[in-house]
Amino acid sequence: MTxxxxxxxxxxRGLHATYGQGAVLHGIDFDVPTGxxxxxxxxxxxxxxTTLRALSGEVSTRGSILLEGENLxxxxxxxxxxxxxxxxxxxRGTFVNFTVEENLxxxxxxxxxxxGVRADMDRMYEHFxxxxxxxxxxxxxxxxxxxxxxxxxxxxMLRPRLLLLDEPxxxxxxxxxxxxxxxxxxxxxxxxxxxxxxxxxxRLALDLADMAYVLEAGRIVxxxxxxxxxDDEAMASxxxxxxx
Length: 244
Known about the structure:
The chain has helices spanning 48-55, 77-82, 100-107, 114-127, 129-133, 144-156, 174-191, 202-208, 226-231, 233-240; strands spanning 8-19, 22-33, 37-41, 60-67, 70-71, 85-88, 162-166, 194-198, 211-216, 219-224. It is α/β, with parallel strands linked by helices.
């Protein structure tokens, strides 16, 4: 089944977002298919992080954000999390004084199924073996890559319908970044987790995604498959560092 034939989990229409008096997003539209991976590319200041924050209810918005037909626009962040949207922000946001296992339990704090939570913790240790080795360590003692893995694992403990990842490679060594993206890709394929990823490493993001949107100054200037972006001379030059 192609991306275009999949059911849509998320439909965003006419999305505007502001910080204080400053407009950041200017009426953007995009779709996220169920079980798909969508990447949002763009230079610093283009509005990528604001887009994820808008989906999470963290900034003022206008427009519609339909999650399986239910409009999340104007809802609180907590209400949006309860509807199955998990957000891993820049900087990871792990609870540094808590252990790895305590962080994972916090990710599942809305769930009541104890057996399911235990099973999912074991599953996270399978996805991220290094976390299983460090389950009793404080999160603050982990390396940057391990903290990023923990942040992703903690978000997955919600069993999200939609996983939002903001610059997961930020500050990580290239080898660690490749490992993390390989794990994220495996989770998408094996568990059909729908993902939206904002990422400066456009090559890795395009390898992971089946649909890409390019933002410039709060507006979408290109939408297409990863191949479309790679084959577009201006996009390839701007984001991949080569001319077609």
